[in-house]
Amino acid sequence: xxxxxxxxxxxxxxxxxVKATAYGSGxxxxxxxxxxxxxxxxxxxxxxxxxxxxxxxPIRLMENIxxxxxxxxxxxxxxxxxxxxxxxxxxVPARDGRPFAIDVDGHxxxxxxFIERARGYDEIESxxxxxxxxxxxxxxxxxxADLPGERLHETIPNFHHTPKRLQALxxxxxxxxxxxxxxxxxxxxxxxxxxADCPVLIDLIDRGxxxxxxxxxxxxLNNILLDETTDEGVCVIDLDTTMPGSxxxxxxxxxxxxxxxxxxxxxxxxxxxxxxxxxxxLVTGYLDSADFLNEAxxxxxxxxxxxxxxxxxxxxxxxxxxxxxxxxxxxxxxxxDRCRNQFGLVLAIEETFFxxxxxxxxxxxx
Length: 366
What we know:
Elements: H1 4-8, E1 16-22, E2 30-38, E3 41-49, H2 58-78, E4 101-102, E5 108-113, E6 118-119, H3 127-144, H4 162-175, H5 185-193, H6 200-207, E7 213-215, E8 224-227, E9 233-236, E10 243-245, H7 247-258, H8 276-289, H9 295-299, H10 301-321, H11 334-351, H12 353-364
Antiparallel strand pairs: 1-2, 2-3, 3-5, 4-5, 6-8, 7-10, 8-9
């Protein structure tokens, strides 16, 4: 537990610190919910210590977040949105005016106002949640679509560069540092058999057919807050991976994380299936807000789900071969189970690709 009272003095809080407790289910940054008294009224804030082992350039990371959140807020205010300060994260400035502060131990901290009357979900519970989550991601992209100024920093270079993820897998196979490659020959062959899929989106971006946009790049459900009463999408959070990318990365990752019939970590999952009803909710919600997509983006919505799932499976397999050094595990073959589930979902998408494309076309023609 960090000294949150001392951390509070680094920021221009204009309120009196009361207490703080650890908060949320994230595994990267240290997150705390802090209670303050603002002129006698209780108010909450989120303090986060940025993990330097994952993000080795916190200053550039916070420059991205400050630019995107400030621009989003300006857009919402200009549109006279009645709930503008609840629809985007906003950075509380440090005493020196920067969007972050550095404590006596050299740790980087940031502070956001707590988004009240909203919550995140680790597991999806309904199709309306899928609709609202997808609509929120489309709205997030739309707010940032006309971000002025220079290109955002790449906080994690090549994060969704699938060909380079496959190259990393081949390097892990070649080194086989933990003598595991022979036990996953089937999974290796599965990935290699789909090598032609890996560069499709990168090639479209390079040719200019798909524009580079400001994207979130980690659109699982618990990064989207829903209203506690109405389940309406409220705010997209965890913006550390917000950087240049393709809108399809965000949509594809929602498909990957929200449409399978079993959980990602299930070690005894039967043959995975695509929840087509849930996929339809995602497509409908996303298209209801992402009205800026061009024809190439629209025509690759289903494919993006397959590609982002394949990419994630490749990453799990690579980490398994490297000795489980990136993703946290709680059993010996945890990453292998994750990989097999991702590859199972790839197969399921391939088997239902026509039905998924039909759903997309139906949504586009509404």
